[in-house]
Amino acid sequence: MSQRTRAKRPLELFEGFLRHQGLNMTQARRAVVEGVFALPSHFEAADVWAEVRGQRISAATVYRTLDLLERAGLVRRVSFGELHAHYEQVVGREDHGHLVCQGCGRVVEFADPGLTEVVVRAAEEHGFSLSETVVQGYGLCPKCREAHRL
C-alpha cells in the first residue's frame, strides 16, 4: 500500500471530524495529515515538521493539527519518559503496549489481548469508565542490560 493510499482513510475521517466541529480542511491541514500517516507509527512533532517543511507550513500549524488529530481520535499522545511528546497512529491498529528502554530509548510494541482485559476488569471493579487503555513497561533492553553489566 502506498503512503498516499494509507493516508486516504485517516484523511476522510479527519475531514468528517472537522466538518462536525465547523472547521475547514485547509491545504496545510491536509499536508500535515498526509505527513503524519506517511511516518512510522511512532513519531514526534519534529518528524511531522520535517515531513512538511518544504510546503511553507508553520510549526504552529503542525502542533494545532496534531491537537485536532488527537481530539479526532486518529493519533494518541504517548510518553516514553522524555520531556517532549511522542505520538502514535491509532487508525487501523490493534491495542498494544510498549516496552521502553531507559538506556537507549528503544520502544518495542507488543500485543496481548489479555492485558486490555485485565485493565477493563479492574476499571469495572472500581467503577471507572475507561476512555483508553495504555500499557507501558520501563526497563533495559538486552543490549543496554549487557552494556550495564560490563
Q: Superfamily at the CATH H level of the largest domain?
A: Winged helix-like DNA-binding domain superfamily/Winged helix DNA-binding domain
Low-confidence stretches: 1-5
**Beta-strand residue percentage:** 15-25%
The CATH level-2 architecture of the largest domain is identified as: Orthogonal Bundle
Put simply, the count of helices is 6
Provide the structure class. alpha+beta
Features:
6 helices; 150 residues; 16% strand; Dna Ligase, domain 1; 47% helix; disordered N terminus; three-stranded antiparallel beta sheet; Arc Repressor Mutant, subunit A; alpha+beta; 2 domains; three-stranded mixed beta sheet
Brief synopsis:
This protein is an alpha+beta fold and 150 residues long.
Question: What does the model show?
Answer:
With about 150 residues, this protein is of the alpha+beta class. It has two domains: about 5-90, Arc Repressor Mutant, subunit A, CATH 1.10.10; about 95-150, Ferric-uptake regulator, C-terminal dimerisarion domain (Dna Ligase, domain 1). It contains six helices and six strands; from the N terminus they run ααβααββββαβα. It has helices at about 5-20, 25-35, 45-50, 60-70, 115-125, 140-150; strands spanning about 40-45, 75-80, 85-90, 95-100, 105-110, 135-140. The strands form two sheets. Strands 1-3-2 form a three-stranded antiparallel sheet. Strand 2 (about 75-80) and strand 3 (about 85-90) form a beta hairpin. Helix 1 crosses helix 2 (about 25-35), helix 2 crosses helix 4 and helix 3 crosses helix 4. The longest helix has 19 residues, at about 5-20. The protein is flat. The relative contact order is 0.12. Residues about 1-5 have low confidence and may be disordered.
